[in-house]
Amino acid sequence: MNPTLANPAASSLGLAQYWAQGDAVSHAVAYLLLLMSVASWFYILSKSWSSWRVRRSAAALESFWNAPSLDDAIAQLRRSDTENVYAPLAAQAAQAANLRANESSLNALADPGELITRTLRQEINRVSARLESGLTLLASVGSTAPFVGLLGTVWGIYHALLAVSASGTVQIDKVAGPVGEALIMTALGLAVAIPAVLAYNAFTRVNRITLAELDAFAHDLHAYLTTGSRIGKQVAHDKD
After folding, report:
1. Burial, 105: exposed, middle or buried (Cβ in 10 Å; 0-12, 13-18, 19+)?
2. Could you read off the pLDDT of 109-167 as tens digits, one per residue?
């Protein structure tokens, strides 16, 4: 015998029935969870691709100092740095080191070492802001999605209790179905939140590694542009 025919209530259970019985609040919660899921997954996929390219270009820092000149090193780094994380730092620092006195520029009148330091700091801040963009979204989705799902669950249980109160009798088949369907909202909230939290932790770790490498690279650039380049010029002048 078909179990569906034996138990007609079983045929009425399901997402379609729950959606049909839901009101504006239930639908709004479902749409909100869907929007949060789409936004977080869009960022997760795009940021994963960007982070992979950044980590791949980090290997070019090892060969940067093996270039015959600073211009060649920057050009080589630009070819490898497809995300423009490391190359702009070297290019802007080199431009600041070669700045000449100019009546229309306050930077040209500043101490070269201080100008290079300020330029490197500005570039690091720019890269840091770029790497951290979107993390607030993932953190917000990861922290609020379970509560949004819980709101849908509470609202569904509230309507189930109203139905029981209106009928005047408590029957398990009339309570279990609506309550079980309402709990689906909690599961959906967790399904939205868990990937966002895991991605947030992963991207935070990648950003921390990238910023540490960028800070070390900036320190080496500052040392070279303030002392190493001068020593090289002095040696070349002595040979002449």
Report:
1. exposed
2. 566 678 888 889 999 999 999 898 889 999 999 999 999 988 888 887 777 777 677 66
Domain residue extents for the chain = 24-233
Q: Whose structure tokens read 């399901």?
A: 14
Q: Which residues contact 150 (CB under 8 A, 6 or more apart)?
A: 185, 186, 189
How far apart are alpha carbons 44 and 57 in whole angstroms? 20
Specify whether the CB–CB gap between 99 and 108 falls below 8 A.
Answer: yes
How far is Cα 168 from Cα 27, in angstroms, rounded to an integer? Answer: 28
End-to-end CA distance of the chain: 103
Backbone angles phi, psi at 101, to 5 degrees: -60, 135
Residue with tokens 């802007």: 92
Q: What does the alpha-carbon distance between residue 37 and residue 41 come to, in Å, rounded to a whole number? A: 6
Residue from 232, 239, 222, 218 nearest 68 by CA: 232
How many other CB atoms are found less than 10 A from the CB of residue 134? 20
pTM of the model: 0.76
Which of 220, 205, 206, 208 shows the shortest CA–CA distance to 61?
A: 220
